[in-house]
Design brief:
CATH topology: Na+/H+ antiporter like fold
Shape: globular
CATH architecture: Up-down Bundle
Distance between the termini: 53 Å
CATH class: Mainly Alpha
Number of domains: 1
Helix content: over 70%
Oligomer: single chain
Length: 370
């Protein structure tokens, strides 16, 4: 059975969302906001969604966006950049410890400062893996609305705040996302090869349920081709910039159907938990920059508790090292994916058991947990 074709209304809603995202991204870039394409498109679409506009990006278009961005990021990999991989294990280990500490601290903050139940606090504290935690919240009966709002606002604050903060202290410069291509121009044959390999890798990783599989699969395919020196072609700047604007539309559209009253009820939890997560990440970032030979801006974005794909785009938009950032963000996703899934199931079991015990309790007897 063929899927239903989009209606004229659907088309207009998507077109409006993309126009708003493009206008916000271009406006922020023109006034010199760091990573303006990303932060401007996110903020513009989020504002439109809160104002009641029907912002939406279809799933297929979001997947195309992830593949294009993966192709763009993978083009940064060269044989020279791969030589630095041997210096990263200690940095990745510190990131793992940072992730665990951040989750524990943020969970405690939501649990004791805002009275969230343990399961909702854990899911709200997860640094990234938003799709997974929202799905777990729905499956186990957690506060899905609160979890989604806290997660989305954290992404928004980090996406807009980090580039501005880095530029303020002179650690990174604003600019349009451009990966230098060969002097003779990009070969159409090489571009077609990159598109085919990246798409196949993206599909394979998505089927294997790898976290961020579409983006990381495409990035892996492009990185292998460029890292081995087999191809040198890169996507045109206008294709990469359009993909980044679409990503901003995807993030901003998550605020659809959220009323101002609803947001106000969770704004304290969202901002407070974001502050806690950033504080923990900052402590470990200071350790890495003090003892290891990495640029401050690279470490800040790599350790930032934001959305995996958005942090990688920020790395490229700010002329940082997206390979270093991508490796650390993938490591963080793996830690979060397994730890949150196991912990959520354990907490959900504790939450359900008392209900079952109360249901089957007989006069004069305790519950099943007694």
């Amino acid at each position: 059975m063929l899927p239903d074709l989009p209606t004229r209304q659907d088309f207009l809603q998507v077109a409006e969302t993309l126009v708003i995202a493009g206008a916000g991204g271009v406006a922020f870039s023109l006034i010199g906001v760091p990573a303006g394409l990303v932060s401007g498109s996110v903020l513009a679409v989020a504002s439109a969604a809160l104002a009641g506009r029907p912002t939406r990006v279809p799933l297929w278009l979001a997947r195309v966006c992830f593949v294009l961005i993966g192709m763009l990021l993978g083009a940064v990999v060269t044989p020279a950049t791969l030589a630095g991989l041997s210096t990263w294990p200690l940095s990745v280990a510190l990131l793992t410890v940072s992730t665990v500490c951040s989750m524990l601290a943020t969970t405690c903050y939501l649990r004791f400062a805002h009275g969230w139940d343990p399961l909702s606090a854990l899911l709200g504290a997860s640094p990234g893996a938003m799709a997974q935690v929202v799905a777990l919240a729905a499956e186990f009966g957690a506060d899905m609305r609160g979890v989604a709002i806290v997660q989305t606002m954290r992404v928004l604050v980090i996406t807009i705040g980090l580039p501005a903060g880095l530029a303020l202290f002179g650690f990174a410069a604003a600019g349009v996302i451009v990966v230098p291509g060969p002097a003779s121009g990009s070969s159409p044959v090489e571009l077609a090869m990159i598109a085919i390999v990246s798409s196949l890798m993206a599909f394979a990783m998505a089927r294997l349920r790898v976290p961020g599989g579409m983006l990381f699969g495409a990035m892996a395919g492009s990185a292998v081709l460029h890292g081995t020196g087999y191809v040198h072609a890169v996507l045109p700047w206008w294709v990469g910039s359009s993909a980044v604007v679409m990503l901003g539309a995807v993030v901003g559209s998550r605020f659809a159907n959220a009323t101002p009253r609803m947001l106000l009820g969770y704004v304290g939890a969202a901002l407070g938990s974001t502050a806690v997560a950033i504080a923990v990440a900052s402590c470990f970032a200071l350790i890495v920059t003090h003892f290891l030979p990495f640029r401050t801006a690279d470490v800040v974005i790599a350790f930032a508790p934001g959305a995996q794909d958005t942090m990688m785009v920020l790395a490229l938009a700010l002329h940082l090292d997206p390979v270093y950032v991508g490796a650390h963000q993938l490591a963080r996703w793996l830690v979060v994916t397994f730890s949150v899934a196991l912990s959520a199931r354990r907490l959900a079991g504790r939450k359900i058991a008392p209900r079952l015990g109360a249901r089957w309790k007989r006069p004069g007897q305790g519950t099943l947990d007694d």
